[in-house]
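User: I'm writing a short report section on ligand binding and want a predicted complex to refer to. Could you take this sequence and nicotinamide-adenine-dinucleotide and write out the structure as tokens? A short remark afterwards would be nice.
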Amino acid sequence: MKNDHSPWVRSQELLKKTAKIIGLDKFLLETLLHHQKDLKVSLPLRLDNGQIKVFFGFRLQHNNLLGPYKGGLRYHPKVSEDEIKALSFWMTMKNAVIDVPFGGSKGGIVVNPKELSLKELETLTRSFVKAIVDLIGPDKDIPAPDVNTNPKIMGWIADEYYKITKDHSNAVVTGKPLEIGGLQGRTEATGLGGVFVLKTFLHLNSLFKSKMTVAIQGFGNVGRWAAEFLLKEGFKIVALSDSGGGIYLPSGFKDIEKVQAFKVKNKTLSGFGGQKIEHDKVLELPVDIIVPAALENAINHKNASKIQAKIILELANGPTTNEAEELLQKREKIIIPDILANSGGVAASYFEWFQNKNGQGWTKKEVFSKLKEKMEKAVSAVVANSKKYKTNLRDASYLLALERLQKVYKQKSTSN
Ligand code: NAD
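Assistant: Sure. The structure tokens for the complex follow:
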């Protein structure tokens, strides 16, 4: 039976394939096929009931050719070294695509945060900062929110880092609360950035129609804001899901704010209204666009043949396996790849870091307008590359990233 390769293995395959197309420098290729630093730490925690439990955390720094390492922090029971390896590599590629002066890293703790009290979660986060403090810093490596992490957790990281280093700039982490140097609109930025990407792509290809139907998998930091802005931009959201289940409303959700309020109160979307469906079935509905905004491998060799939507907007990192992609390309589906589609998050993180370092404070309107400009530029560059190399959008994004990395590499390296 056919298997879906692990996210890191499949990324290496695609890296090698695209490196060949542009004749990437061999030294640079070997560098990108490996991580520069890989730290695993143990984090013993005294639980509220007095018991001691040991958690494990990772911080992986893939590459810093373009600037300080940058990448989110994930809290999830399925966090693994292989997953963080892929995620940190994708950060290097994404930062090159969106053209911000950052390298790529990622971190995570193997934990289900829903099983910890707030106090336990804070202690665990602070002990993680103590364990990785030598690796991070405003000019070294800058964490940000990812799955199951949020501004509150970023605030603890900034505070613990300050306690240890006395660096008060807060630029060690992005996605912070506004009161301690956070960016207006950072929370919305990944979802909104994805909407800018989608709209620009549809217009460039004369595919935009009013009321295009959309199904979204994942209703967290990213999926919730994608739903909100897609609705505002004239799309029709007919299905949503989270880990607790899916809801399908063919007439379309009218108020995403209400869905969010229901989710906050009930901890799940299930029961909000519409028809109940299994959480992963939202991807198989008869809609124009599907938006995977949850975890890796959501679209794999098992469900790829059942996908009906013409367009897949990858707001999650790595939601499509290579095997699924092959099948979907044969079926002439359009995949707008993660390293382009969800790069609004790191673009906004760059704005936040820049603000912190330069003592500035932009309004939400200014942030959204800068974000729009960045996303439109990136989409145009990827679409131009897909025409130049006659390739799909994922390969075109990789080629763009590698071209940019190679240009910088050539300026920095003595042998070239
Ligand atoms: P989150 O924890 O806020 O939300 C994840 C959502 O996915 C939750 O609603 C969860 O219930 C749901 N989910 C999990 N498994 C599911 C399943 N099988 N079916 C349906 N729903 C499921 O995380 P997030 O920050 O929104 O991140 C989502 C994805 O976007 C991840 O791949 C992340 O790496 C990527 N991403 C996030 C950011 C960011 O700024 N937060 C930036 C770029 C990329």
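A remark for your report: The pocket of nicotinamide-adenine-dinucleotide is lined by residues 145-148, 190, 217-223, 241-243, 279-280, 293-295, 315-317, 342, 345 (CB under 6 Å). The CA atoms of residues 8 and 240 lie 28 Å apart.
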